[in-house]
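Sample pair:
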Amino acid sequence: MDTIIQLFNNTGFANITLDNFIMVIIGAVAIYLAIVKHYEPLLLLPIGFGVILGNMPYMQGLPIGVYDNLSSGNPQNSVFSLFYWGVTAGIFPPLIFLGIGSITDFSALISSPKSILLGGAAQIGIFLTFIIALALGFDYHEAASIGIIGGADGPTSIFLSSILAPKLLGPIAIAAYSYMALVPVIQPPFMKLLISKKEILIKMKAPRKVTKREKILFPIITFIVASLIAPGSITLIGMLMLGNLLKESGVTDRLARTAGNAVLDTATILLSFAVGASTQASTFVTKESLLIFSLGLGSFCMATMGGLLFAKFMNLFLKEKINPLIGASGVSAVPDSARVVHNFAQEYDKTNFLLSHAMGPNVAGVIGSAIAAGVFISLFAR
């Protein structure tokens, strides 16, 4: 009987808690959204499964979880802790940026340089949330890591928090990826609230054709300028622009395909799974995590409103009006935010095609959030 009791005490049934059960439900919801609703399935599915895996209880001393490594006194590293090391060491986010750069076309931004103003305006959510988080008692490192969620850029949020606030990495990463996935749900209400029907119906001329020389020079010049403005952005902007240069140069097609497929997919799987597995109930189910989720949502909402309102402001000075809807795509969720803008306009006029125009602020938002992260790293990474 003692042996039977001991065997039972070593099972997950004897050690599972209510918090574990809550997290398993959250993981299942993420998988449901990925499969049924098609919300960022490449991210939410591995994250959701990682959440479930990370909350399966096991006997103490067994090296399985992401936090089981030599530094915590265990006899050996777990496999999952090595995956998580790739996250905390800042390896996976730059690799993802390399892959994103290799599949991104910056033509829309190059053909309409004013789009970068919309991408910059959408970053207001980052800095306003930074101030609010400070007022709520978070320190500078934590407030900066929470604020960057407003950029709706998961890799950037993870990269910054791994440097400034590693203990908040789990909730920040989950919040950032969740709001990326919920772009089609979060943004349309603000479009309806802030943009009139007359403005929604504005049609924009087709973007001019960009030359090959411009496409090659753009990643080089952008990297140099961004690095001089915010040296802390060198890692992310450097990898993003390297990937784009591989694509646009015309002489490294094989490398560009590898970066945009094998490297990007592998890094995405390992990062999203490891982040999900890091959400163990004992470290994740806290009042602090709920506050981070609330602040992150507020940051994303403010970023959306900032882009929309700044686009309306720009129209006061432009002879050739822009459709203010494209301001919402200034967040970094590429290409989902641009697609949401396009689909929203199509509901009012099937002949109004905004996708190519929305991609300008959208890719500018990627650059903008990376520069914002670089500013925080330059200020606080000491």
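The mean pLDDT is 91.
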